[in-house]
């Protein structure tokens, strides 16, 4: 192979080793692409230079923080997307964005091969490669960690033997993926389901008891399902996530300990931290309870689960996902107003709602003076509503009596 390989570069051991390994094994030049998704940690310029030191012919850093927030996190909020009713798709929604930029980089830098550092056990190999096959089926895919059964020990040995400039002696018990939407932690002692997470698992959140005596009350304002202000101060979607990560994280909000069904057929134990994500989704769900008509709300809740499954399963670019996006966008037309909530002891507690698009009518709901609900109409409604069940029950009684 003499083609250029465009590598999704994280700056860690596996992808750093991959640069040199690809060059030695295939003779190809490697172009590294690192995406800033608000993950924090190392300075992205340090990551870019490391790729060059490891042998990349070019290294590019793309600041995609606002794009990620607007085009990937926001749809997740509007879909109230929680895989298995718990996981806000922290890693899953980042992969299609990385795919998009890797394809663009391949076109810009003359690449004919794209490469990632995923293993064969996880979901990310599917998310990457289905995305590549959808957006750029002409590109070949190289996955050295999976296809050549790398272990950490083999990667460390290769790095030492080839003088790859990366610290390979520090051993973390965990595998970690993070971005501004949240943080995912797995492996190590967490693989024993009975082991409780220890303090060193967490980074985005404080112990929920730490600030227990100082709850944080705030108001999130939405327009068409989009967060636009916090406590009256205008914010972008990215601003909202960052501020809520800080404030909700200080209250221990967003800690999730999940045994989830992976796409490849196994169950895995994951620890997630998503303080901003869980706060925004909770507030958005509550505002929809106020502003969505009953049947629309019921149907949307069914489709939210399917949307979450499609994204988790790596089908971001699928026709069904795109069609559901249109539906979700339509439902957001009247999702505007304020949600007041309290962040306290690891919980998000909603205690106030107001909206100019509210479908809550005080004079219909009240049991006090001013009640305009026509209770005399209820008797006939109840009889008609249950009529089909009443008829079926009579049929079943008659059949039983005839059989005696």
TrEMBL record:
Q: Which compartments is it annotated to reside in?
A: Cytoplasm
Q: Does the UniProt entry include the keyword rRNA-binding?
A: no
Q: Which UniProt keywords apply?
A: Amino-acid biosynthesis, Arginine biosynthesis, ATP-binding, Cytoplasm, Ligase, Nucleotide-binding
Task: State the family it belongs to.
Answer: Belongs to the argininosuccinate synthase family. Type 1 subfamily.
> Superkingdom, according to UniProt?
Bacteria
What InterPro entries does the annotation carry? Answer: Arginosuc_syn_C (IPR048268), Arginosuc_syn_N (IPR048267), Arginosuc_synth (IPR001518), Arginosuc_synth_CS (IPR018223), Arginosuc_synth_type_1_subfam (IPR023434), AS_cat/multimer_dom_body (IPR024074), Rossmann-like_a/b/a_fold (IPR014729)
Q: What is the lineage of its organism?
A: Bacteria, Bacillati, Actinomycetota, Actinomycetes, Mycobacteriales
Locate the residues binding L-aspartate.
119, 123-124
Q: Please list the reactions this protein catalyses.
A: L-citrulline + L-aspartate + ATP = 2-(N(omega)-L-arginino)succinate + AMP + diphosphate + H(+)
- Entry binding sites for L-citrulline: 87, 123, 127, 175, 260, 272
Q: What is this protein called?
A: Argininosuccinate synthase
Question: What EC number(s) is this enzyme filed under?
Answer: 6.3.4.5
């Amino acid at each position: 192979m003499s083609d250029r390989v465009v590598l999704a570069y994280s700056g860690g051991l596996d992808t750093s080793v991959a640069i040199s390994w690809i060059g030695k094994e295939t003779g190809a030049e490697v172009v590294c692409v690192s995406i800033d998704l608000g993950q924090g940690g190392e300075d992205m310029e340090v990551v870019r230079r490391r790729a060059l030191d490891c042998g990349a012919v070019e290294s590019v850093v793309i600041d995609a923080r606002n794009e990620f927030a607007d085009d990937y996190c926001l749809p997740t909020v509007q879909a109230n997307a929680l895989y298995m009713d718990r996981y806000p798709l922290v890693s899953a929604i980042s992969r299609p964005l990385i795919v998009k930029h890797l394809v663009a980089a391949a076109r810009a830098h003359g690449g004919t091969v794209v490469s990632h550092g995923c293993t064969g056990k996880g979901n990310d190999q599917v998310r990457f490669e289905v995305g590549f096959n959808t957006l750029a089926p002409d590109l070949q895919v190289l996955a050295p960690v999976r296809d050549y059964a790398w272990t950490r020990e083999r990667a460390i040995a290769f790095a030492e033997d080839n003088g790859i400039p990366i610290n390979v002696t520090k051993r973390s018990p965990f595998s970690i993926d993070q971005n501004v939407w949240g943080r995912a932690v797995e492996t190590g002692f967490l693989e024993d389901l009975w082991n409780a997470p220890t303090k060193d698992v967490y980074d985005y959140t404080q112990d929920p008891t730490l600030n227990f005596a100082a709850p944080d009350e705030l108001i999130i304002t939405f327009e068409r399902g989009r967060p636009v202000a916090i406590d009256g101060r205008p914010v972008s979607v990215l601003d909202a996530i960052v501020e809520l990560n800080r404030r909700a994280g200080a209250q221990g909000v967003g800690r999730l300990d999940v045994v989830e069904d992976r796409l490849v057929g196994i169950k895995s134990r994951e620890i997630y931290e998503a303080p901003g994500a869980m706060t925004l989704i909770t507030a958005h769900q509550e505002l929809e309870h106020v502003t969505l008509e009953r049947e629309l709300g019921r149907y949307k809740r069914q489709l939210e689960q399917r949307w979450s499954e499609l994204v988790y399963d790596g089908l971001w670019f699928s026709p069904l996902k795109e069609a559901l996006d249109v539906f979700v966008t339509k439902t957001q037309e009247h999702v505007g107003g304020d949600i007041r909530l309290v962040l306290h002891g690891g919980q998000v507690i909603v205690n106030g709602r107001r909206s100019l698009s509210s479908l809550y009518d005080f004079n219909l709901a009240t049991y006090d003076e001013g009640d305009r609900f026509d209770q005399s109409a209820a008797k006939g409604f109840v009889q008609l509503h249950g009529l089909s069940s009443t008829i079926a029950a009579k049929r079943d009684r008659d059949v039983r009596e005839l059989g005696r």
